[in-house]
Write a structure and sequence with these properties.
Blueprint: H1 30-37, E1 42-52, E2 55-64, H2 73-91, E3 98-103, H3 116-119, E4 124-129, E5 134-143, E6 147-151, E7 157-161, E8 165-170
Parallel strand pairs: 2-3
Antiparallel strand pairs: 1-2, 4-5, 4-8, 5-6, 6-7
Helix pairs in contact: 1-2
Length: 173
């Protein structure tokens, strides 16, 4: 099994920075794990499954479906207990052969895959747009496969295409 190649926001010398939309359906094990988390009111944001020396390293980032609540350690623990047996079965390994870390996105989390905007509707973010060359703040009103709509502080809405976003971060969680 090869490591899952998750979508990353790239920056650096000679590499263009952008956020692109990659369907979670294309990320191995994502749908299986999300299915067991939905009844708990938990959303799977990122999943990385990497085989390493006879075991499998798993990193998962989760948030709550209810954007008015902050995720707790208890919620992360519930997510861990729910997806561990699923991943053990799907990878053909015992639970003892899986090393898993489950965490919240956190304040410093960069939004790497544009599909994440749909998980955080109602949350305040800031995006660095190439067209403005500056940060722009707003609350995510909606998003689809091509763009997101931000509600600005003055009450207006602004549509931002993913190709125009160089970087996106939470203002607070």
């Amino acid at each position: 099994m090869e490591p899952v190649k998750a979508p990353f926001l790239l920056s650096g010398l000679g590499v263009k920075t952008r956020v692109e939309y990659i369907s979670t359906d294309t990320i191995p094990y994502f749908k299986d794990c999300q299915t067991v988390l939905e009844p708990l009111g938990i959303i799977l944001v990122e999943l990385h499954v990497t085989p390493l020396k006879g075991c499998v390293n798993v990193s998962a980032i989760v948030c709550l479906k209810d954007s008015s609540r902050d995720i707790s350690v208890s919620d992360c623990s519930k997510a861990h207990r729910a997806i561990l047996p699923v991943l053990a079965a799907k990878t053909g390994r015992s639970e003892d052969d899986l090393s898993m870390e489950v965490s919240s996105p956190g304040l410093s989390h960069n939004i790497k895959n544009a599909v994440e905007f749909s998980f955080f509707v109602g949350r305040e973010i800031r995006v660095w747009t190439k067209s403005l060359g500056d940060w722009e703040n707003g609350i995510i009103e909606s998003s689809d496969e091509k763009e997101l709509v931000l509600k600005k502080n003055d009450g207006s809405s602004r549509t931002v295409e993913y190709g125009d976003i160089a970087k996106a971060k939470f203002i607070h969680l």
